[in-house]
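[09:14] KT: can someone run the structure on this one? pasting the chain below
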Amino acid sequence: MRLAEIEMASRGELGVAILTPTSSHYHRQGERFSLQSVMKLMVAMAALDQVDQGKWRPGQKFTFFRSDLSVSHQPLADRLGKRNSIPVTLEDCIEVTVTNLSLIHISEPTRPY
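[09:31] RB: done, structure tokens below
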């Protein structure tokens, strides 16, 4: 299915940019589109790059503050509850960012079976 057909079928607008070392292809090149959730993958990749460089560790803890919440839904808000801050690991942040799971379940201790 071509991009224009996808737009027509979805009754929406689709912005696409594909860049390779030798070429570039665009659909609606002159228009601007919000990255919204797409940005999460780029942030996770940047964090993993810091791990690869030895600057961060997957189990490294961070403090997530209520003031860090954005106006959009964030799965971390569920875990934060009414507290002003909570500790989270980099691994937890990446997983919840990419998979959109609730950290309430991720951070519970694993029980041996």
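[09:33] KT: thanks! Residues 102-113 have pLDDT under 50 and may be disordered.
[09:34] RB: yep, looked fine to me
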